[in-house]
Every structure is written in structure tokens, then in C-alpha cells.
Specification:
Layout: H1 5-18, H2 34-48, E1 52-53, E2 56-57, H3 61-79, H4 88-111, H5 113-116, E3 124-125, E4 143-144, H6 154-164, H7 166-177, H8 183-203, H9 213-237, H10 248-257, H11 265-289, H12 302-322, H13 332-337, H14 351-358, H15 361-366, H16 368-378, H17 396-412, H18 422-444, H19 450-459, H20 470-482, H21 486-510, H22 517-526, H23 532-540, H24 544-547
Parallel strand pairs: 3-4
Antiparallel strand pairs: 1-2
Helix pairs in contact: 1-2, 1-3, 2-3, 2-4, 3-4, 4-23, 6-9, 7-9, 8-9, 8-20, 11-18, 17-18, 17-21, 18-19, 18-20, 18-21, 19-20, 21-23
């Protein structure tokens, strides 16, 4: 039986509500209406959110198997669409939906975070991510504590109690679902769950909490359930012996079909080796050129840091505006000022804080992230498909790649002309990102353990800046093992952004038009947080990367 797409979407919603298999159709109808894609996208997003079991998301194997025919029906409908005659922007939206569905398929077949990755069951999130969604695989019942204002209103208190009640039930389900043998993921994931217990205990000391015995009781139940899960994970961890990487072939498929990166595992190894060598070389040339200049001095007090942060903020914002780097919106500076950081004693500074205490402008340049998140809130994209965060961290090449690229772009455009030694920090940051990404590639190929990958990360970061504080090293390598492609996205996204800029400028030149960096970045911003390969196509009409 053949259904019109709108009727089909209604049927899908019914199937999702009742968790019944979608009806079989002898023939998949071909549709060429863009609005049908929007309807299908909405049905897909409803499907992607799993049904509830005992009031929590159901990640059991039986439910995945039962629902998979519905997914295949959704995917078949997408692939049967005729996009001939659609605008490039509309075709880009089609590719976004295709990539998300490929991500679900890959998670179902290969990544399986609900069965391999204990950190997937971390429920409590204390801070907002600097990208559109949390980094790495995340369950569908997170508690976003950073969105609450303390002391809590009565309404917020009831909401938090309801959310906290999920933790004991979800943790119990985790014990049934977690059957994988990925040792590094397992052992390091225990750290995330243990940290959740610490954070829950800290919440009890926050303003207004002690006056709510019912809320304290709910927190205590969550603490007990979290500690119990930690004990179980530690006991089971003694039996885990397998690799955690997904292998080169799977890694390449995931890059190209989910994150839409037109590279292979081997390509990324070569690219990151090249960037690592280039960054080290450029750093040493900068040091040579600056050899007669005074060394940068790190600030040594909270008052000095505040003065430095204020001066750096004004310097960056003035530079972006007066040099026509990007259209500076009213919400840019407030978004940056909310994340200026504070003084940290030298012995507790991690990699990024070391640089920030010399001059935070390289880090604040990377905080282009916060401009993008503010734009999502204040000027959301008109496309229903691009308005919110893309699933499965598909935004990584765009958001992490852009934030990394502008560090060097702003430098080359003149941000540090009066402070040349700050250029050294930029190259140190590039080298660190290349080194950590290279380590993650070898870990996913199962040629190294996570610890050995961290060795590359640490040893190849200049000046020993990754050897001062081990928590960042563990956090980053663990994340990159959990989320394939994320560790390399800073450098690969930067490369892809530079390729897009090159084509954008080349076409301008061919038409006899003047190139302005502001035009490029404004168009990039206006397209939303989509993979750079798609943005490249939409800005230039050049689709060679997408064909790969």
C-alpha cells in the first residue's frame, strides 16, 4: 500500500506512540516537495527520542530491535525524495537529515554507547557546553543544572525533584544494558559517574537546598544510586579486556557519512601530522623573531587578571569591529564577558589557563563559540532543520573548526601586531590540538591505548603545557574515544574552513569582485551550525567535498 507523505508521517507518529512496527509498503513513494522533508524531519526527531521504560529512556536491546523497522522506513522515505530543482540551501537540509539518520544507524550497529560506554549514563550536567549540544554521546534524560537559578522557586524545585527521580531507575537499567568489553571506555567512564556523586553532594550545600527536606531526600536517593553504579562498574571493570576504538574502516565511514568530513582515517593522520609540524616550526620561527623582545609575564593576582581580561576583551571586540573582520552584533560582547574566567594559582592551571594568564586573547578568539550560541538563541535560523543543535555532534567541524581557525585568522589579520609574542601562544594552541587529535586517531585504530594516545597529546604540546594538570588530558582523550572524529575536528574543521575561504575568494577574484573577510564570516554565520563541507557548497556552489 502506498501512502502520501503527510499521511505516512501521521502513521509514524501513531507507531511511535504505540511502539508498533511501521506498516510495510510495497512501493516507496517519491516526493519532490521541500515541505515534505520538514515533516519527515519532525517525525524523525520524534522517533530518535526513545520510548520510556519505567519512566526513563529505554535503551534495552529488545526495544532497539523492535523499533529498527520504523527507522528503516523513515530512512527509505528520505532516500526516495527527488531533490532536483531544490535550492542548494534546501538540498543542504536534506543532507543534514541524511547525516543524522546515518548517525543513528552507526550508533545502532557500531558505537552502541548504551552498552559500551558507562559515561553515557551521566545524567547531571553542571555547565553549559560551548558548542550547540553536549560533547560526546549523551542520554536523553539529562539534568541541566546550569539552567536553574538558586534559591529555587517552588516550580523549579518540583521540576528538579522529578528530574532527579530518573537517576536511580536509569542507573538500574544501565546495569542491564552495559555489556560491552571496551576496557578504556569502561574504566575511564567510572570517573564520570563518580564525579556525578560528588556534584550531587555539593548541591546539598547550595542556597535554599537545606530548607527543602523533600528535595534533599531526592538528592540522597540519586547519590546512593550513583554510588551503587560506581561499585558495580568497578566490579565489572576487572573483567574488561577489549579495545575501545572503532577501527579505521568504521572511523572513515563515520567521518564521511555522519559528520560529512571528506577525509579518511589516513587523510586525517597526514593532515594532523602536517599541522603539528607546521605549528612547531612556526612557533620556533616566532620565538627567533621575538628573541630580543621581553618575555610575556603571567599575571600573579586576581586583580591583575581582571585588568588583563578587561583589556583583552576590549582589544578583541574593537579589532573585530574596526577592522571589518565580522559584523559585530550587540550580543557578542555580553556573550564573551560571561566567560572571561578568573585568576587561578599557577600550580592549578591547565593548558588553556596557562595561556590565558599570559594573554587571554587567543582563548577569547576561540570563544567565537559563545557568539554562535547567542546567535542560536537570539537569531535562530529560519530552517526548522538548522534551528537547533544537530544530533551526534555533527556540528563539530563547523563549531570547533571555526573556533580554531579564527584564532590564527585573527592573528594573521593583525590582532597581535602590537604584541608579537602573543602569536607564540596561538601556535602552541594549534600544536596541542594537532597532537591530541593525532593521539585519538591511533586510539580509534586500536594501535594505542587511551593512555598512550595521551602520551602523544602531552609530549608533543610545546613548553610542557599539557604536563601541569592531568584532568584535562584524561577528559579530552576520553571524550575523543567516546565520540569518533571530535578530537580531530578542530584541525580538520579548520582545514575545511580554509578551503571554503579559498574557493570563496577565488570566485570573487574571477568575477572581479573585492574579497572581504567580513563577507565570508557573515555568510558562514548566517548558514547556521552545519558541517563545513555543506557550508562550503552553499557559499560557493562548489560541491567537490560533498561528492567525496
Amino acid at each position: 500500500m502506498r501512502y502520501p507523505l503527510h499521511t505516512f508521517v501521521s502513521i509514524i507518529f501513531f507507531c511511535l506512540a504505540s511502539c508498533k512496527t511501521a506498516p510495510e509498503s510495497q512501493e516507496v513513494p517519491i516526493t519532490s516537495d521541500y515541505e515534505d522533508l520538514v515533516h519527515l524531519f519532525k517525525a524523525w526527531r520524534v522517533f530518535e527520542n526513545p520510548p520510556k521504560l519505567d519512566g526513563v529512556p529505554d535503551y534495552t536491546e529488545a526495544t532497539f530491535k523492535k523499533r529498527f523497522p520504523i527507522f528503516k522506513t523513515l530512512q527509505d522515505r528520505l532516500l526516495a525524495m527527488d531533490t532536483i530543482g531544490w535550492s542548494i540551501a534546501q538540498q543542504v537540509d536534506w543532507h543534514i537529515v541524511r547525516a543524522e539518520m546515518n548517525g543513528y544507524d552507526f550508533n545502532h550497529r557500531i558505537l552502541q554507547p548504551w552498552s559500551r560506554d558507562p559515561a553515557y549514563y551521566k545524567s547531571l550536567w553542571m555547565a553549559q557546553s560551548d558548542v550547540p549540544a553536549h560533547e560526546g554521546p549523551t542520554n536523553h534524560a539529562t539534568i541541566e543544572l546550569w539552567t536553574y537559578d538558586f534559591p529555587l522557586s517552588n516550580e523549579a524545585k518540583e521540576k528538579l525533584k522529578k528530574e532527579l527521580s530518573v537517576i536511580p531507575i536509569l542507573n538500574q537499567q544501565a546495569k542491564q544494558n552495559l555489556s560491552g568489553n571496551a576496557r578504556d571506555l569502561w574504566i575511564t567512564g567510572i570517573r564520570d559517574i563518580r564525579t556525578q556523586s560528588v556534584n550531587l553532594k555539593n548541591i546539598k550545600t547550595w542556597e535554599g537546598i537545606k530548607d527543602s527536606p523533600d528535595l534533599i531526600d531526592r538528592i540522597d536517593q540519586a547519590i546512593d544510586a550513583t554510588d551503587d553504579l560506581v561499585d558495580w562498574l568497578e566490579e565489572q571493570g576487572e573483567t574488561k579486556t577489549g579495545p575501545s576504538g572503532i577501527g579505521k574502516e568504521n572511523y572513515t565511514w563515520y567521518l564521511q557519512n555522519v559528520h560529512l568530513i571528506p577525509l579518511s582515517w589516513e587523510d586525517e593522520v597526514m593532515l594532523l601530522k602536517r599541522e603539528l609540524a607546521r605549528a612547531w616550526t612556526a612557533l620556533k620561527l616566532e620565538e627567533h623573531r621575538n628573541r630580543d623582545l621581553p618575555e610575556l609575564n603571567a599575571v600573579g593576582s586576581p586583580e591583575a587578571y581582571e585588568i588583563l581580561a578587561e583589556r583583552s576583551t576590549k582589544s578583541l571586540m574593537n579589532f573585530l569591529d574596526t577592522n571589518e573582520i565580522v559584523s559585530v552584533k550587540d550580543y557578542f560582547e555580553p556573550a564573551l564577558r560571561a566567560h572571561l574566567g578568573q585568576y587561578v594559582p599557577e600550580e592549578r592551571r591547565n593548558f588553556f589557563l596557562i595561556g590565558a594568564h599570559y594573554d587571554p586573547r587567543p582563548l577569547y578568539s576561540h570563544f567565537y563559540h559563545w557568539f554562535e550560541l547567542a546567535r542560536m538563541d537570539i537569531e535562530p535560523h529560519q530552517s526548522e532543520i538548522r534551528k537547533g543543535p544537530l544530533l551526534y555532534n555533527i556540528f563539530d567541524s563547523r563549531n570547533e573548526g571555526t573556533a580554531t581557525a579564527v584564532e590564527e585568522m585573527f592573528m594573521d589579520a593583525g590582532l597581535y601586531d602590537e604584541d608579537p609574542r602573543v602569536r607564540e601562544i596561538v601556535y602552541i594552541m594549534i600544536a596541542q590540538r594537532a597532537a591530541r587529535g593525532l593521539g585519538s586517531l591511533y586510539a580509534h585504530a586500536n594501535e594505542m591505548t587511551m593512555e598512550a594516545a595521551g602520551g602523544i597529546h602531552s609530549e608533543y604540546t610545546p613548553r610542557g603545557w599539557m604536563k601541569t594538570e592531568k584532568e584535562l588530558l584524561i577528559f579530552e582523550q576520553h571524550l575523543y574515544l567516546r565520540q569518533p572524529g571530535y578530537g580531530t575536528s578542530y584541525i580538520t574543521g579548520k582545514y575545511l574552513l580554509e578551503a571554503a575561504l579559498a574557493d570563496f575568494a577565488r570566485l570573487k577574484e574571477a568575477r572581479g569582485e573585492h574579497f572581504r573577510l567580513k563577507d565570508f564570516l557573515d555568510q558562514l554565520n548566517a548558514m547556521g551550525n552545519i558541517p563545513i563541507a555543506l557550508g562550503h557548497w552553499e557559499m560557493t556552489g562548489v560541491d567537490e567535498q560533498l561528492k567525496r
